[in-house]
Specification:
BirA Bifunctional Protein, domain 2; single chain; 5-stranded mixed β-sheet; Rossmann fold; elongated; 23 strands; 12 helices
Length: 411
């Protein structure tokens, strides 16, 4: 992709009402556009990051036998009334509206009830189980506060997954598989070392849950952490959890975090409330056991933008960067720069080529703001030396290399 073909331009300043660092940087670098508080559009560079995150998540969910689908955003009132969660006193983040025929509907904030309702059509026997289904879909939540950029939105993209089983034991085995799959996801996103499986409240879902909390000063959560024992407890359940886990508060370190994911073990409760049953091999009816598992895709992007950035701009990990290389040409080398661009892309490298007629300082500043892992510079002086300049965004270090040497390092 050539920078001249991008419809967005980098900005010197973010909107005055944007206080979150992640959103300030993403807006200035041309990854997102702010529609209103907690609501953002994702532009071409932002879409590439989201798709890279989604692909990592997709590969790990597929690896544990889940099937991808897309459910509806419009949701029926009667489905949610079966569990009492249509009531605003129980779930206070609903966006609700009416169809032309005066039917009241909700805009999906989660999909537990609708997917249980759907499974009634497909589950009859124990032979139909287990089932695991996941989707990537915008969620709508009428949050009271939306001050953390894309880390806490009123409209956001989530990966939500639901599994269905014949027994509590079978669910527990799969639940633990998901925990391990999530750990692999966060490792691949580059935040695994700072992300902890955390004992937490189930909120509107169930009494207790597990959250995946990532250490981040801009986060809205506080957890108590025992690094050696790998124990993490959300502040909101600290007293109850200490009793369960057998640790004392004095042993725990308090840290600021952002919730990057969560998982819930519903047991048979949801199926009992909604009448999702299966016939066992002894011809008796039993309720299905269910788990629910979420990763905020846009939230993960925001957390990474917060954690991997500096005073110059974003610093994307290679696995999710929109492009791997930012190519800068300086001086009268358009022909040679185009030839280099084509050589780099022919090797499979993804390249953003800054082909603009701009001063070098402006190109370098944009390269640092956008934050691709590598910057390659070509100029008349470098061509005379038979070298290219390779700069590492995460360290700022620069090397002069031949093309073959450069490709050996970054391909």
């Amino acid at each position: 992709m050539r920078v001249s073909q991008l419809f967005t331009k980098t900005l010197k300043d973010a909107p005055a009402d944007e206080v979150a660092k992640n959103a300030q940087l993403l807006i200035r670098a041309g990854f997102v556009y702010k529609e209103m508080a907690g609501v953002y559009a994702y532009l071409p560079l932002g879409i590439k990051v989201l798709e890279n995150i989604k692909q990592i998540v997709r590969e790990e969910m597929d690896a544990i036998g889940s099937n991808e689908l897309i459910m509806t955003t419009l949701q029926r009132r009667d489905v949610w009334e079966k569990t009492g969660r249509w009531n605003d006193d129980v779930v206070d983040v609903w966006f609700k509206t009416k169809l032309k025929d005066d039917t009241e509907v909700g805009l999906g904030w989660s999909h537990e009830e609708p997917i249980v309702e759907m499974l009634k059509q497909y589950v009859r026997s124990y032979k139909d189980l287990p089932i695991s289904l996941y989707q990537f879909q915008p969620k709508m939540r009428n949050e009271l506060r939306a001050k953390s950029g894309i880390m806490r939105g009123r409209e956001f993209v989530m990966k939500d997954m639901y599994s269905f089983h014949t027994s509590a034991e079978e669910l527990e085995v799969y639940y633990n598989k998901v925990i391990e799959a999530y750990k692999r996801v966060y490792d691949r996103l580059g935040i695994g070392n700072d992300t902890y499986v955390t004992f937490a409240s189930g909120g509107a879902f169930t009494k207790f849950s597990h959250e995946f909390q990532t250490i981040c000063e801009a986060g809205e959560d506080v957890i108590y952490l025992h690094r050696e024992k790998n124990i993490a407890i959300n502040e909101e359940v600290i007293d109850d959890a200490i009793k369960e886990l057998g640790v004392s508060r004095d042993e725990l370190e308090m840290v600021k975090t952002a919730e990057s994911g969560n998982i819930f073990n519903f047991g048979a409760q949801k199926a009992e409330d909604m009448g999702l049953n299966f016939v066992s091999d002894d011809d008796k009816q039993h309720p299905v056991f269910m788990g629910s598992y979420g990763i905020g895709i846009t939230r993960a992007m925001g957390v990474i933008a917060e954690k991997f950035s500096d005073e110059k701009g974003l610093v994307w990990p290679e696995n999710i960067a929109p492009y791997k290389v930012y190519l800068v040409n300086i001086g009268n080398v358009d022909e040679q720069a185009t030839e280099l661009y084509e050589k780099l892309t022919s090797t499979g490298l993804t390249v953003l080529f800054d082909d603009r007629n701009e001063r070098p300082g402006a190109k370098f500043a944009d390269a640092e703001l956008i934050g691709l892992p590598y910057r390659i510079t070509i100029s008349e002086r470098l061509i005379e030396q038979g070298k290219l300049e390779l700069t590492y965004r995460n360290s700022g270090e620069t090397e002069l290399l031949t093309l073959d040497e450069l490709l050996a390092k970054i391909s």
